[in-house]
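Q: Convert this sequence to structure tokens.
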Amino acid sequence: MNGRTTWIATIAVVALAGAAPATAGEVDLEALAEKARAEGGVINTYGMPETWANYGGIYARFEEKYGIRQQDIDMGSSVVLARMREENASKNDVADLKPAFASILASEGLTFPYEVSCWADLPEGQKGVGKDGSAWYAAYKGTLGWIVNTRMVEKVPRSWKDLADPALKGMVSYLDPRATGTGEATVKAVAYAMSGDAYDVEAGAAFLGKLHEMGVIASVDPKVDVSKFQRGEVAILINFDYNLLKWKEDLGIPAEVVIPEDGTIASGGGVVGARNAPHPETVKLFLEYLLCGEGQQLYAQGFVSPMNPTVELPAEVAAKFPPKEAYKNVRFVDYAKDAEISDALKAAWAQAVGAQ
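A:
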């Protein structure tokens, strides 16, 4: 996912909420753990730093539980894709990258051929099998919305259409779709709200163009920047909920996180095992841990939403998120289609808002 902020979530030890084993059948985790430890007690990762998605907490608990230590090289999705291709997926064990890139690696036979025990529980479109059984997963998700400084905004906007309010002149900021995935997601989210089709980019761009004409938009930023919100220069920031919720917790500003009622989009974060991983039993153990129980709960400690719908969050964690009903009008993006329409989206947006 794009728009990563730098933070470390509190590590909490929570009970494993056992999702019923499915495709892979019953898994003896202790026997698997014994095999994994025999491989050297190390797991090599790409793009899973402790400051993203509570991987610090996830891997700390994984080590505490199984005695296996993480060694990460932090890199973006495009670099992960290139490295795993160059290395024939033989140097790392697991990686975090965009689902579209995870799917590409699977189609090339470069991801680990293993379907976790909770495979059937994972939503369609958030997992897949490519060449020679190579599997990919979307392990967590984020939903696009906004954070509102309630000291500056008396009437909190609940929908995209509510943003077209002259009272909000100069108060709204979002990310540039030419420079960020979150900016592209903003256009798609608006398109979904306006037309029911996240890929009707003309509809999304046109509405954003209207907000620009009204003077509602204060800035379109090339990277994630919360400083203007902190200083009170803008009152509403559009971003993914994992960032918004963290800012609400950390900034000490009276604020509310809104998931727009008239519709928005969600996007996943991909995780794959490497086809020729140096520690294959460790890969199996970690994927089971991450996708089928406690790992999902620990993701939520970092405000990224778990993908597995059967995993229940502890009450104190769930209370930090908007209520479930706030997410009722959310549509997952189509990862393959994202790449296809990217250039058209950027062009439509630039024309609608008069960007140079």
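Residues 142-266+323-353 form a domain with the D-Maltodextrin-Binding Protein; domain 2 fold (CATH 3.40.190.10).
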